[in-house]
Design goal:
By secondary structure, the protein is α/β, with parallel strands linked by helices. It has 21 helices and twelve strands. The strands form three sheets. A six-stranded mixed β-sheet has the order 6-9-10-3-11-12, sandwiched between helices.
Length: 629
């Protein structure tokens, strides 16, 4: 089973098996994407395409909004008739008001407005359903996409930046659609309906009112183009700040030990200031739209009132018509103002959408193929003319040939950067070989689905990774449907059972978020028990005993000897004393195997392994002498 290494990546070293934080060095900064200005039109079109599966509901919403808008648009004209009834009776004819006719007018207006409210409310509920289901599918797409991305993508991405994209940005898209989708449809229909009614009431006055449309549109485009880049910058800064905060919390102990709090605080202040400036700029520029639209709307209102008054005095327009038109002018400017004010929400949402689309558009790992491993697996692993490099300009492994016979233990030693972990990465298919091939029992692993391949591989890393839950849950993670007897057997075989009984809740002890309620050795023993329970055909042990004390190491070595029986094992070791009994020891330097053989054979050869062994032995003597002194 695969573990995840969560330590920061050291300079000039490749990350190991999983997401590594920054990928550019401890507390460094990756280069985030999304720096370019968003392309609003294509990105908006693509975002709306995610609503495609909801087309039947969208059509229903459009019909309801159209009906509601029609009722709302006709309402002022109907009220204008009521005004004319009163004005003609009292002012013109000096007769009694026809309350029967007036009541019919008022009832019709009430029906229209109530219908408008009811249809708008129902349409709003449907829009909410459309948006939430669409965002649910988008989250699912992002989740499935990340499962198909190669490890090198996670190695090169700041973890906080990626989390910001799949959480903050998706949430922002949801809020943007939720707040704008209904409003856009409703206000567009309102503008069309109101303009139509304006021409019905008075086409000359309607032409006067329409002058504001190009003015409003031009101002919105000018302001929107400026705020567009600022919103893209704002969400990029948000991702970088989240990444910096996540890194600071993850490495809190390291920061404290090395007294780097002031530097981290200064870095946070700088990132926070950058976010403040971009956010303030985006909101300020886009916020100008509202007062500008209010000014244009009020100017339109004044012009209509003056021109309308003149038309009444000349007899070309009734008082009721002026009243209706004044209402229409308000109804006309309000949706335009609202549409303009939503520009900042749309730009923010599209900026987030583009960041999410960048994840969805990332090149995926090679597609799965249908070959199968022979069952049961014998465990013969062979590297044939394998070459691999993380950087095309810096070859790491070149023309590697290696055979691990079934049931043998292959120890891999060598200096940092020699390619030991890379060898394991290639077996696990975390990375794909560039030339040559890796086979298991003669089957090229590149032709085997990754899930099937990894189901036969067990792994224990130097850095223990435990999940939230109990100790029992973490051990049981190694085998789906594990019984209590199997869990206890694995715990006893790996000496977890010894320290568990000293805990108040035993196997039901809940591991906290940082797993700080267990020692490093105890955490490592749990991961070893997990691998023991998994009972895989091939084992990968990367310095699995480095976090335990000397006495526990002896116990773990015994457990590992049991675990390795009948299985092909690859052991990456720095402490050479732990791999003396390996069947084959490979000494790697610069991506090549420079020596191989048993411990005794390599010592007699007095080559690279002998030098490593002597260096560790000399260091151990020096440490003992220093302790004695």
């Amino acid at each position: 089973m695969s573990e995840q290494n969560t330590k920061p990546v050291k300079a000039n070293e490749r990350p190991k098996y999983g997401p590594q934080g920054r990928g550019g060095g401890p507390m460094g900064h990756g280069t985030g994407t999304g720096e370019k200005a968003i392309s609003f039109g294509p990105s908006m079109k693509r975002l709306l395409s995610h609503l495609g599966p909801e087309l039947p509901l969208i059509i229903a919403v459009v019909v309801m909004v159209a009906l509601a808008t029609a009722g709302n648009a006709i309402g002022p004209a109907v009220l204008g008739q009521g005004t004319n009834l009163i004005y003609n009776a009292v002012v013109v004819n000096h007769t009694a008001i026809d309350f029967t006719a007036l009541s019919r007018v008022l009832i019709l207006a009430a029906v229209l407005y109530i219908g408008f409210f009811g249809l708008s409310w129902a349409a709003g509920l449907m829009v909410n359903s459309i948006v939430q289901r669409s965002i649910y599918r988008m989250r699912k797409q992002v989740s499935e996409k990340t499962a198909r991305l190669p490890l090198k993508y996670f190695d090169s991405q700041p973890r906080g930046e990626l989390l910001s994209r799949v959480t903050n940005d998706v949430d922002n898209i949801s809020q943007s659609l939720q707040q704008t989708l209904m409003q856009i449809v409703s206000n567009l229909f309102t503008v069309v309906g109101v303009v139509a009614m304006m021409f019905v009431v008075s086409w000359p006055l309607a032409l006067v009112a329409l002058i504001t449309i190009p003015i409003a549109g031009g101002l919105t485009m000018i302001i929107g183009s400026r705020s567009q880049k600022l919103f893209a910058k704002m969400w990029k800064a948000t991702g970088e700040l989240n990444s910096q905060v996540e890194e600071a919390y993850t490495g809190h102990d390291l920061i404290t030990v090395f007294g780097r709090r002031r530097e981290i605080e200064a870095e946070f202040k700088a990132k926070n200031a950058e976010l403040f400036e971009s956010s303030f700029g985006a909101q300020f520029v886009s916020g100008i739209i509202m007062p500008v639209m209010f000014f244009v709307g009020n100017l339109n209102y004044v012009v209509i009132a003056v021109v309308g008054g003149l038309m009444v005095t000349t007899g070309t327009l009734t008082v009721g018509g002026v009243q209706a038109f004044i209402q229409y002018s308000r109804m006309f400017t309000h949706p335009i103002t609202t549409l303009a004010s939503m520009a900042n929400l749309l730009q923010s949402g599209v900026a987030s959408a583009e960041r999410v689309f960048e994840v969805l558009d990332t090149e995926e790992q090679q597609p799965e193929t249908g070959a199968a491993l022979p069952m049961p697996i014998q465990g013969r692993v062979a590297f044939t003319d394998v070459s691999f490099s993380y950087d095309p300009d810096k070859p790491l492994i070149t023309d590697l040939n290696l055979v691990a016979e079934p049931g043998s233990t292959v120890a891999i030693v060598g200096p940092t950067g020699a390619g030991k972990t890379t060898l394991v990465n290639l077996i696990m298919r975390f990375y794909e070989v560039q030339t040559g091939r890796v086979t298991i029992d003669g089957i090229d692993i590149s032709t085997v689905p990754r899930s099937e391949l990894r189901s036969q591989l067990g792994m224990v890393l130097q850095d223990a990774w435990l999940f939230g839950g109990t100790i029992r849950d973490n051990i049981a993670y190694g085998l789906d449907g594990a019984t209590e007897e199997q869990i206890l057997a694995a715990a006893k075989a790996t000496y977890v059972d010894r320290f568990v009984h000293s805990l108040p809740d035993g196997y039901d002890t809940v591991i906290n978020e940082e797993a700080s309620n267990l020692s490093s050795g105890e955490k490592q023993l749990i991961t070893i028990a997990r691998a023991f329970l998994a009972d895989r055909s091939i084992l990968i042990l990367d310095e699995a005993t480095s976090s335990v004390d000397t006495r526990t190491e002896l116990l773990v070595q015994r457990a590992m000897n049991k675990l390795r029986q009948g299985r092909t094992s690859f052991v990456i070791a720095h402490r050479l004393s732990t791999i003396r009994d390996a069947d084959v020891i490979l000494v790697m330097e610069d991506g090549a195997i420079v020596e191989q053989g048993s411990h005794d054979e390599l010592i007699k050869a007095e080559g690279a392994y002998h030098r490593l062994y002597q260096a560790q032995f000399a260091a151990a003597i020096t440490d003992d002498e220093d302790s004695a002194a």
